Amino acid sequence: SIAKMSWFVRLLFLLSGVVAVSASVWPVPYRRFDSRPKTDEFCQALYPFCPTGHPDGSMPKMSENDVVEVYSMKAPVWEFKFGDLLAHFHIIHDAIGFRSKQTGLNYTMEWYELFQLFNCTFGHVLTDMGPPLWCNQGAACLYDGIDDLHWSQNGSLTKVAEISGKIFNEMSDWVHSDNTTGIYYETWMVRNSTGPESKLWFEAFDCASFVIRTFNKLGELGAKFNTSVQTNYTKITLFSDQPVHLGNASTIFGPKGNETLATEIRTFYEHFQSHQPFPSLLKSLLEAFDTIVLEKKWYFFYNFEYWFLPMKEPYLKLTFEEVPLPGRKTVTVV
């Protein structure tokens, strides 16, 4: 149709001047950093990050011959505000619990956003010229105690392994390194289809992926897991054909950038500005629907670079998928 042809010509124009780069390896590897940078003063948390956590993310040292129980812990996102509501949609937050048999002390370890989920998912459009500002750091938090009621009332608190104090201390060193080099939160997974043989373009980096990485590391260090336990995790997936690399903030928004593309990216993220009156927010979300579903466009931010996603059905899907504990083979999808 003329309308479809018009959109296609417009898209070609937007991408003119952009050197399209396809990744040589899919999924695109998550970028690691040498250290954690200072956050922008604009980024403010509605709820303070890790208010009772150990200073500087430090971990307790265990006696090497201690026996430490390991727990998989799950609770609905924003349970403090909505109770078990989001559990009905399998929107679950994940954490790990530890209990020293020698001391009887308990610890909770989780990885989450410094400035809440919406800030990590969508950039802030502050000017008509510059790039969106991202408040997307995430980090590990370890604090004393396990709130049994919080985790077990609407979620789960399940023992999955026993490890030695030596393995715990080795894991602690790894957590410090992982937390220093993996600094930003990524909400979305991106695939090309829903089938079991689908191509994975981008992996999420969130609370669940931290728990999965930690359990896998414990397996590498020699931990033996209770493989009768099934562990499922929330995944929010976007669906697109092969992504096109567009560039970073400097190459797109700088003096020699692509002004038309820069405007298009700002316009896309203007649909998702949380600090607007409800009528404006509703209008923005309807415009976002047109962009994503009708025009099949998404400007995706990953590794501090922008990618164009040619969106396709079903566009977005929330699943509760099993990622097996080390040694477990069965995989189910809810």
Characteristics:
28% helix; disordered N terminus; alpha+beta; single chain; 334 residues; globular; 6-stranded antiparallel β-sheet
In short:
This protein has helices at residues 2-15, 79-82, 117-121, 148-153, 165-181, 207-220, 249-253, 259-270, 278-294, and strands at residues 67-76, 92-100, 106-113, 138-144, 156-164, 188-191, 200-202, 224-225, 232-240, 244-247, 297-302, 305-322. By secondary structure, the protein is an alpha+beta fold.
What does this structure look like?
The chain is an alpha+beta fold. It is 28% helix and 27% strand. The chain contains nine helices and twelve strands. The chain has a six-stranded antiparallel β-sheet with strand order 4-3-2-1-5-8. Strands 6, 7, 9, 10, 11 and 12 form a six-stranded mixed β-sheet that branches. A hairpin with a 2-residue loop joins strand 11 and strand 12. The radius of gyration is 21 Å and the shape is globular.
How is the secondary structure organized here?
Elements: H1 2-15, E1 67-76, H2 79-82, E2 92-100, E3 106-113, H3 117-121, E4 138-144, H4 148-153, E5 156-164, H5 165-181, E6 188-191, E7 200-202, H6 207-220, E8 224-225, E9 232-240, E10 244-247, H7 249-253, H8 259-270, H9 278-294, E11 297-302, E12 305-322
Number of strands: 12
By secondary-structure content and strand pairing, the structural class works out as: alpha+beta
Radius of gyration: 21 Å
Helix content: 25-40%
What is the number of helices?
9
Strand portion: 25-35%
Determine the N-to-C terminus distance.
Answer: 39 Å
Shape: globular
Low-pLDDT sequence parts? 2-9, 16-20
- What order do the SSEs take from the amino end to the carboxyl end, as H and E? HEHEEHEHEHEEHEEEHHHEE
